[in-house]
Each structure stands twice: as structure tokens, then as C-alpha cells.
Amino acid sequence: MGLFAKSPIKPLQQHASKVHECCSLLPEFFIASNASDWKKATEFRSKICILEDEADALKHKIRLNLPTGLFMAMDRGDILELLTQQDKLANIAKDISGRVLGRELIVPEILQPDFLAYVSRCIDAATKMHEVISELDELLETGFKGREVQLVESMIDELDSIENDTDHLQIELRQGLRAIEDQYSPIDIMFLYKIIEWVGAIADQAQRVCARLELMIARG
Prior knowledge:
With 220 residues, the protein is mainly alpha-helical. It contains 8 helices and no strands. α1 packs antiparallel against α5 (112-134), α2 packs antiparallel against α3 and α5 (112-134) runs antiparallel to α7 (147-180). The protein is globular, with a radius of gyration of 19 Å.
């Protein structure tokens, strides 16, 4: 963790990149699983698990090696809280792929286009969170002031808009599933409702990370 000699923010940004990479495999995972290509789905699940493990390893290294008192603008507790919140996205992606693969769960064909659009929009939220965290070192350099703050706040507004989109898409998917649920196994339907909810949690968690950063900007 020699990066700490220069900035403790860099490892946090590394971790955010790993988390984003992990979540970004979900669309391809669902394309494979919805096509009943369980071999390919298993391969994507394995990649998701590897990336989640790598994110966990980074998280532990950051917690163990993060010094105190390096920055006045951002304290150790703030960095650790951001780390904890963004790490949850990788955990969600791992849990989703595990549940789908474990039951060989297939989204009903009539819902698949809307479902994949929903997954993609939730990943957009994770991408925007990654972009915001990538600006964190610039924020620190400006002391949480000036045009950099305006840029980050604009990006957070975009994330809020994306998360709002995912809420509407989730409602539409749940309504669509309800209309056909009597045609499928009740247990599978129960799991499908949960999968829809957990995919949405990626966008919710991305928003939570940036809401935490907004509080730090407000304090700064």
C-alpha cells in the first residue's frame, strides 16, 4: 500500500474502480442466465466473486494501513465510511448472481427487455458513483470549495436522476411480473421479486455513497 505515502484517497478510488468493475458484469450475467446458458453464467458469476474478493482485500488493507491526521479537509472516519458504503455494491452484485445461479432463475421472456434496461440503468448509477469518487482528490486539493464542488454536485444531481429512473423502472417491472405471476412457480416469483429489489439496491447504494460525500462537502 505504498500509495498511502502520497494520498490515502488513491486506494479508496482503486477500491471504487474494483467495485464498479464487479457490478458492471451483471448485465452480461443476466443475458447468459436468461438464455439458460448456465455455463457462461457460471463464468460471469466466478468473475464477479473474484472482483468482490479483490475489493474486500483492498478494503481490509485500507482499514489496516490508513494513517491518521493526514488531511484537515477529510478525516479518517469519513474515508472509512465511504469505503464501507461503496463496498456494499460489490456484495450486492455477488449476492444477486449467487441467488440467480443457485436456482437457475430465468426472468420471464416477456419482461426480459425491460429487465435488462433496468439492470443497465442501475449500473449507470454505480458508474456515476465511480466518477464522483474519482473526483475526490480534486475536491481535497480545492478544500471542498469552488468550481470542483459545483462539478461534483452536478454529478451527484445526475446520479439522483438516474436513481429516480430506476425507481420508476422497478415499479413497472413489478407490475409486469404481477400480471403474469400466476403462470409461474410461486417460489420462483418470490425470488424474481427479490432479484428486482436487489438490483435496485445497487442504485440506492450508489446514491447513499454520494449522499455521504455531500454531507462532507457541506461540512467543508
